[in-house]
Structure formats: C-alpha cells, structure tokens
Amino acid sequence: SLSAAFWEYLRHLGLQDFPCGLGSWNKSCLKGRRSPRRVQPGQEEAVLHKESPEALLELLRDWHSPWALPPDCSPQDQLLKEVAVLAPELIHGSKVCQVLKSLRMVDKGVEEVDEGVLQFQQLEELILSANQISRITSANLPRTLKVLELCCNTVDDLQDLCAQPPPELQHLGLGHNRLCSPSQDKFLTEDFWPNLISLDLSFNSLTDLLGLVSQLSSLQKLRILVLQGNPLALIPTYRGFLVDSLPRLSILDDIHIGPDERQQFHGLARQPELSRSEAQVVVSVGEMKGVPDPRTLQQLDVGSEAPVITYNYFVTYEF
What we know:
The radius of gyration is 30 Å and the shape is extended. Helix 3 (53-61) runs antiparallel to helix 4. The chain contains 7 helices and 8 strands. Mean pLDDT is 83; it is low at 32-37 and 43-48. Helix 5 (209-216) links the parallel strand 5 (198-200) and strand 6 (224-226). The chain is an alpha/beta fold and 319 residues long.
C-alpha cells in the first residue's frame, strides 16, 4: 500500500539520526518542556556542548559535510531532513503527514492507494509514477489534492477514481497506462473534473477520436492535453481536428497552438467524416540478408533442360 511504502521510505531516510531528530546533540530538545529537569553539578558542560539547530542544519547543507544531502536528492527528502532538525517534534507519528504538501513515491512497488493516505490533510501534489496501480479509489485521496500523477502504472478503469474525485484537481496524469476507448471516455468530463487544466492520456489504447473529443469539450478549463502514443493519433487529421474542436487548448502534445495553426484548421471540426478512425501505414523493407534475391533472373542456355527455380517471400506484421 502507499502508506506502507511511505513509512518504509521514512525509515530509510533516518530522520532520528544525527544531525536530525531529538537526540542529545540537539539543543531544541530542551525547548517546550513544562518542567525542565534541574541541571545537576557537572552537567552544565554537557548542555553547552549541544548543537544549535542552525549548526546542525549547516551539516546538511555544506557539501563538505559527511551528512550533506546528495545533489540529486528530491525536494521532499530535503524538506523532511530540515524539518527533522528545526522542528524534530513534527516528525513523530502521524504529525509528519501534516508537514508535506507534496508526496513523491516513484517506483516503490505501490499497488494500492489505501485509506491511510487521508492523514495527509495538507497534500496538494501526489506523484505515483512507475508503480503497479491498476485502480485507485478516490475516497482515499485527500480533498485538497491539485496534482495527481499516475504515469507508467497499469490503470485500465477510471470508475473508482471518478466516484468521489478531488474537486480542486488541476492536473491528472494517466500516461503510459492501459485505458481503452470508448469505455473510459465517459469519465473525462466536467462532471468529474470541473477544475482540470492539464490532462495527460499519452500512450494508452484510445481509438475513438470523435467520442473522446465530445467528452473533453465539456472541460471548460482544460488548456494542456497530451494524446500522443494512442492509436487515434495516427489519423491524418488528428491534430487539426483537435485544435479546431477544442478552442480553449493552449498546448497539444507538448506543442503550443498558435493563431496561425488555428486559422489553418478552422472549420475542420465541422467535417467529422475526415476524422474517421482509420490510418494508413506504409512499411518499406530496406534490405534482407542471407536469402536469394527474387528479382535476379536465372540465366539459362537455349535448349537447356535444367529446372527454373523461383523465389517468393512475404513479410507479416502484427499490430
């Protein structure tokens, strides 16, 4: 589950180890106590040798330090490490869930977004790329969520996700999954995603261009759309039909839509017959080695009784 993967991630992050946490090295462990223990004779020196949070923080930031965070660490790692120094009381138990507004769990073997995710009450961004999620229950997603990225999973059905979708979601990433037309098109409307600005559906198995456009046209705030890698992108009029059918779009397949392009494809949306779900693929065989050339005619002497040998080949393509 996502919760189990998160707690395992925290364990490996070592937020209780020097220079983080409420260890004896941190002066902040003396703060906030209602009745500080009386310092016994001989203990004054030990208290003085505790490090200030600022000094401990420097050990994380100075690249000469053996405790420095690696240059390629994520902002999430850096945030949690620094919080564990400056406010170590926040990393105990479920309090740590209140610290994060962005949670990135990439390639952690997550199969389920469980109910424990609701502890992240401030969460606005959830990145779950390269996991093994086939379905996601929207009731387990924080209502504050604005970005949900599910790229490179095995999502094949959006019904559970659309049961109670986060109302403020602005980006939905479903690239490199297993969505098919027309069964999933009906879940891509304003009824489910009233504030959606960006939608990534690239590299799925969507084939019904006309049906998909009829649903996407209800997304009044949609400005960025990615559909490349789907079979419907092979249709010759694919881009022009989308540009003219969705006039609010600013970017299609990572390419900006300018005024000239809109003018070029103006009126194409009123000619759906040009956007039939058909495509022509031309395959050329450049060179084949190790077989006789069928174009070479065998040279025979006049009157020879030797048999004539001919060669024929065929190539099969499976889509």
